[in-house]
Amino acid sequence: MSSWRYISIIYARFFCIPILSLGILGDVLNIYLFLTVSMYRQTPSTFYLLCSVIASFIHLTIAMSTRILMVGFDNDLTCSSLIWCKARQFIIATYAPLGLTFASLPIFDQFLVTSRNVRLRQFSNMKNTHRIVVAFIIFWHIHSMPFLVYNQIRSNECVINNKILSIYWPYIHFFCVLLTIPTITLVTFGYLAYKNMRCLAKSGQLIGAGRQLITMVCLQLTFVVVATILFAKSGQLIGAGCQLITMVCLQLTFVVVATILFGIYNTYILSTSNRNKSAEQVDQDFLFLTVTSLLGLFNFGGSFYVFLAASSRFRQTVRQRLCCCYGKTNKINPNTIFTIRETNCALKII
User: Fold this and answer.
1) Is 315 within the bounds of a domain?
2) Would you call 81 helix, strand, or coil by DSSP?
3) Per the count of CB atoms within 10 A, which of 24, 71, 117, 256 is most buried?
């Protein structure tokens, strides 16, 4: 075993397993919070985030856990089970873009909510939100069905046995579906929503519950997007709306940057596919694949920590939900003591 292969195994076992555990924990906490707080379920933007977290949880659990088994423990079930070869590819091809789609929709919803056009604002409601969610779930499941047909096991490897689909997967799926579409959504509707909020603030139609101003700087260079959100105490924008846009933009940026890592690997592999590589170069490519794929998958479990860092309201909700027992004890005891004392005083007076 070469040193490069050994580094890949160590990386998968001792670095990626804790990362996977943190990602699953974050997704579970996100799902719990979004389901138990009624405000999150009744608001279109946060309902999209809930759907995004559920899709990301499914993708992270299947994709990252099986990748760790492949690399760290040399246990690739896709090479021995045709059903799993087809099912794993189908799940990854479905829930990765589904999670990104739902993560992008809150930006579009914020554009609708802040629009001056009454018809656009009225389009943002839970009834339409449910329809959109169901439509995208059906669409992405249909989109991935060809993998159930054309994924086959050849020479102890799970491969795509279709020329068109094998071209679509590395080129169109990764660079267009997972990277370009979220980037365009972030830049376009994020800018339009920010512009709408600035116009409403200048016209005095927004009353500041918090004093925050969002400045979004989006830079796109060879599919690399870095969105920087700056807070300043000179704004007239609504704090909750600002924090929601902040959460969405940071989450989507986190997803795009993480996807770039695997996109770099795909670009390198496709550009060097016709070269004759030595055994050492193959092991180096394997290490490159291990690092980029496993690190890139963490974006599907990091939303909880992004929201925790971006929003003070979300942090307050986490404290209330996870520490509710302690808070209730502190509040109940003084009231009980006070009631007892009043009763005793009344008895003495009588």
Assistant:
1) no
2) coil
3) 256
